[in-house]
Structures are given as structure tokens and as C-alpha cells.
Amino acid sequence: MTSRDNQSISVVWFKRDLRLQDHHALHAAWESNNPVLPVYLFEPAIMADSHYSNRHWRFVWQSLLDMEQQLRPLNASFHVSYDDALPFFKRLHQHYQRITLYSYEEVGLACTFERDKQLKAWCKSVGVEWKEFPYAGVIRGLTHRKQWLANWRKQMCSAPVSTPIHKINWETNKTLVTRVPATISAELHRPDEHMQLGGETQAHQTLVSFIDDRHRSYHTQISSPLKSMRSCSRLSPYLAWGNLSVRQVYQAITAVKSPLPRSLQAFISRLHWHCHFIQKFESECEQEFRPVNAAYQRFPYRADEQATQQFKAWCEGNTGIPMVDACMRSVIKTGYLNFRMRAMLVSFLTHYLLIDWRRGALHLAQQFLDFEPGIHYPQFQMQAGVTGTNTLRVYNPVKQAQDNDPSGEFIRKWVPEIAHLDIEDLFAPWQIPPLTQLTLDSPLPPRYVNPVAIPEDIIPPHRDLLWKWRERDDVRKEARRVLHRHSNPG
Ligand SMILES: Cc1cc2nc3c(=O)[nH]c(=O)nc-3n(C[C@H](O)[C@H](O)[C@H](O)COP(=O)(O)OP(=O)(O)OC[C@H]3O[C@@H](n4cnc5c(N)ncnc54)[C@H](O)[C@@H]3O)c2cc1C
């Protein structure tokens, strides 16, 4: 056992708040006047959770490199350790006599919730004070929404905290860290040109380019899978991993001009949704495992062998429905998909194939670079129609293609094996008569002749089932409870 430094220390534990500005935990640590030790933990137990994939940890890695670059001129560095939280902080506790731990409250998955509970119990048992700060107007332990909106607005309008990082007395103690294994760090270090680059610097550049130029077509191109890549803000990974605070974005946008143009008003409502959904998850985190409307627990999803094969086809972008396949292949490669196309993928899985939303939620969590449990789960359930409170929206992928990819450019890009088809055949190739198929330049791949489900055929019985369930007494009763618990008055 190492002898303890006779020293008080403030430890800032960075989680999904990978920035140095508008950071309450860092600011409070600086105000403590103690040396400040900045820590990020690549936690093997969390990394093993099946929601995550390397793309997330690569983004984190890039964000840490960015912060490291900001700290280097100050002769400070980040303490990046490959450790689960409890053993790491126990080790830390052997070195320092008095530790105060600073972090944000994490609105996370069961794995991080359990880890935090264990850590909290240990902190209490050894006298380590853990100061946690709320996330973007999200209130822990909230039972109703009466004051929620007013509080959110107040948070968004209050001044961001500005921490003079050059004045911080940074602590360095490399003996505490366990190096990330070379096989993992090599993988995380490898750039992926198709994904957005992580880091505070890149986040600010993305925000500025949206404000200066890209926002102009935001509300008209928001649902186009191709054009939204540019016209949407693309801020989601930066918000999900905390390279920007929601408040920084809110204030940068509202400072543009008054009144805000329509495109930016539409954007601001989404920032509100961001926090509204995270609050829903904070208030009822069981949504990771069960429908928020508990009556849907017994909904008769298909779980036979054919459903398993269809699920695999959905995951791989091989369903034979061009728009579904293009969206899935695109998100696998780029980590991004706009809102409407995410909703359509969920609708196809749950309404057309009648496969349990939970199976799809895990798969898409791994693909979305912006995976944020507090948005992902409530949105997934809403689109799957298991809340009992929202209108049931069944998205026909053929109509979505006609409306949002009218030239077929997006489908041709991601499903090259049918790129030779004329536009009138591209969205529903199974309708091409067999004799005409023989005249095509290259034969139609079998899956586009016999897709896993033909939208027109399969939907009526499933739609009836979904609507019938909405009318059930137990679903309605639960819907009233859900509304009472999670909606803002007015
Ligand atoms: C099934 C499903 C799962 C989703 N999972 C996630 C997720 O894990 N992480 C995530 O950030 N978003 C998720 N969304 C919401 C939305 O699709 C993305 O936030 C958006 O597409 C990100 O692109 P953008 O930053 O360019 O969005 P913009 O349209 O520019 O919006 C700006 C910001 O507002 C927030 N936002 C936008 N739309 C929504 C919405 N409908 N609900 C809540 N917040 C919103 C996001 O933080 C986004 O970055 C999900 C939507 C669906 C239907």
C-alpha cells in the first residue's frame, strides 16, 4: 500500500461532459482552491455493455485528445485510466488523505446507474464527498413536471460558467492510471473518415457553420436522408458526449437575431425536446427494459425463427426494401441518420415485421454515434407505439422514399446493386413484372424480388392489432399515468 499524500485534492470525473468550458463540476473544483485532478475512465464493465461499440469510444478518445491539447501548454494532462470506477477511486483514496469528487449527474443505462450507487455507498463509508451537478435542466428524482419548463428556461438563459483553466492548480499523478491496452487504444486511435470527429474544437466549428450558413434549409430539408447530412445541425454527438453544453448551443442560437428565423425556431424546439426526453428517462429509467406503458409488456411480438432471420436482415440492411436498406447501411457506415429515417426504421421493425422494439433499440444504439440513452429509449418506444399516449405513426418506406429521396440518389448511393433501376422501379422493385425483369441490364438481386415484407400486403392485420391494443382498458389506464408523470402542463 502506498503512503498517503498529506494532501486535499479535488477530482473531476469526466463522463458524458467532455469539455473544459461551461462545466459546473470543473468550475466548482477550481473554486475549492485544491489541486485539481481531471480523470476519465474507460471502464471495462461499461465498455462491455451491448449498447456501445468502438465508434463511441473512438469519439470519446478524440474528445480527450482535444482537451489534452488545451491542457498541454499549462503543463497539465488528463488522467485517462482503463479501470472500473470503484477500484480506481479506492486506489486514489490510498494516495490522498482528503478527496472531494466532482462530476455531473449521469442520466444513463442500468450499468452506470448501478455503478454510481455502489460508488456512492463506498464514498459514504470512507468519507469521500461526491458533489454532483444536474444535467441541462434535468431534475433528479422529479415526480411531476409543474415547474420543469420554467426551470429549464432559467437554466438555458443563465450565464455559462467560465473557468480560467490557466489559473487552475492542476494535479499530475501518473502512477494512478492503468494504461488502456494497446489493442484497444490502437483501434480507438484509428481515424474513421466516415464519422464525425469528436472534440470541443470540432463541436464549436460545427455550431458556427450551422449558424453562419447551414441552418438556412434546416426546416425544409430536415427529413431528406441526403440533404439533412448538411442542413441539420449535426450537433447530436457533441451534445450526447458533452463537447458542448445544451446551454452553450441555446445561447449561441438565440443570439443570432431577434426574432429568430423559422429554421432556428424549429431548431430551438428540438433542444427543448433533447432535455424533455432525457427528463422522461431520468424519471422512469425502467424504460430501458420495459415499455413506459406497462400494459404493452404483453404485446404479442413475433419471436419465431423467421422473425429472427428478418431481424438479422433488418440489422444488416438486407431486407429487400430499398429505403430501409439504404438507411441501415448508411447509419452503419456513418453513425448518422436523421430523425424521420430513424423513426421509419423503428416503424418497419415493429409495425411491419412485428418484432420487439427492444431488439432494435440495442442494435441502433451501437450504430448511432450520438447514442444518448435518455433520448434513444423514449423515442424508440414512441415510434414503436408502446407509450399509448402518442399518435401511432406507421411509416411506409416506399412513400418515405418517394417523398424524401425523390431522385433516388440516396438509395442508389447505399444500395448500388439496384442503382441501375429506373426511378419508377427503384422504390419498390418487387413490383417489376417478371418479363420486364429479364430485360434489365443486370439481374435483380433475389432479396429485391422477395423482400422480407411487402408494405402493402403485410400492414393491415398488424395495423389492426396495434390499433386494437390502444383501445384496451389497461393501456388507456397506463396512458393516463404516463401523461400525468411525464408531460409538461399546458
Ligand atoms: C428511434 C430514435 C432514436 C433516437 N436516438 C437518439 C439518440 O440516441 N441520441 C440523440 O441525440 N438523438 C436521438 N434521436 C433524435 C434525433 O433523431 C437526433 O437527435 C437527430 O437526428 C440528430 O441530428 P442533428 O443533431 O442534426 O439534429 P437537429 O435536428 O439539428 O437537432 C438539434 C439537436 O436537438 C436534439 N433533438 C433533435 N431531434 C430530437 C428529438 N426528436 N428528440 C429529442 N431530441 C432531439 C438533438 O440533441 C439534436 O442534436 C432519436 C430519434 C429516434 C426516432
TrEMBL record:
Chloroplast found in the keyword field: no
Cofactors that this protein relies on: FAD; (6R)-5,10-methylene-5,6,7,8-tetrahydrofolate
Domain of life: Bacteria
MF-aspect GO terms: deoxyribodipyrimidine photo-lyase activity; DNA binding; FAD binding
Domain Photolyase/cryptochrome alpha/beta: 8-138
Name of a matching Pfam family: FAD_binding_7
Binding site for FAD: 218, 267
Cofactor note: Binds 1 FAD per subunit.
One biological process term in Gene Ontology: response to stress
Family matches, as InterPro entries: Crypto/Photolyase_FAD-like_sf (IPR036134), Crypto/Photolyase_N_sf (IPR036155), Cryptochr/Photolyase_FAD-bd (IPR005101), Cryptochrome/DNA_photolyase_1 (IPR002081), DNA_photolyase_1_CS_C (IPR018394), DNA_photolyase_N (IPR006050), Rossmann-like_a/b/a_fold (IPR014729)
Keywords attached to this entry: Chromophore, FAD, Flavoprotein, Lyase
Family to which the UniProt record says this protein belongs: Belongs to the DNA photolyase family.
Entries under PANTHER family matching the protein: CRYPTOCHROME (PTHR11455), CRYPTOCHROME CIRCADIAN CLOCK 5 ISOFORM X1 (PTHR11455:SF9)
Protein name: Deoxyribodipyrimidine photo-lyase
Biological source species: Marisediminitalea aggregata
